[in-house]
Amino acid sequence: MSTHIKLVAVFADNTLGQMARITGVLEQAGVNIRWMTIATSETFGVIKLLLDRPAAAARALRAAGYSVTLVPVLAIEIRDRPGGLHTVARVLAENKVNVDNSSGFVIESRRSAVVLIEVKDWARARRVLRRCAIPTLAARDLQNL
Q1: DSSP codes joined into one string, 92-111
Q2: Helix or strand or coil: residue 138?
Q3: How far is the C-alpha of 31 from the C-alpha of 25, rounded, in Å?
Q4: Can you tell me the distance from the alpha carbon of 17 to that of 119, in angstroms, rounded to the nearest whole number?
């Protein structure tokens, strides 16, 4: 089973209405947004989205003129308690896996959190997590949250 999750990263000018234009493209394509984050400078931004259909979203956004990249990430479900994230961070650090970017969200009904991590060596990170009994989620698992 593949645990490879892809975020859609959209590179766009930081202008009034840009988010509405991007979400409008996704709405027209019938793509559902599960999670998102925006990082901007004064004039430029990167919008990362966890979507139900990332390939379809990337096609639609490119057709609308946006620069889009599919970013592989690992999704890890951890208990929502103090130290939950530290366990994952410690295991990765001890095994010399650097986290380039990370974000997450809480699922109250499951008393857990999902952490999305970007690393350069995705396969190695997955092996380290598996060896340390830290399960990763597949794309279909995220659809059921």
Answers
A1: HHHTT---SEEEEEEEGGGT
A2: coil
A3: 9
A4: 31
H/E stretch holding 140 reads helix 139-143
> Which residue is listed with tokens 């650097």?
98
Nearest CA among 133, 131, 130, 98 for reference residue 117: 98
Find, among 24, 32, 74, the residue nearest to 50 by Cα: 32
Which domains, ranges and CATH numbers included, belong to the chain?
5-71 (3.30.2130.10), 72-143 (3.30.2130.10)
How many residues in the chain? 145
The two tokens of residue 30 are 């019938």
What 3-state class would DSSP assign to 128? helix
Cα 99 to Cα 96, 118, 121: the distances in Å are 10, 6, 10
- The model's pLDDT over 69-100, given as tens digits with 9 standing for 90+, comes to 999 999 999 988 999 899 999 999 999 999 99
Q: What is the pTM of this model?
A: 0.85
The pLDDT value recorded for residue 41 is 86
Question: 123 vs 2, 72, 141, CA distance in Å?
Answer: 11, 10, 19
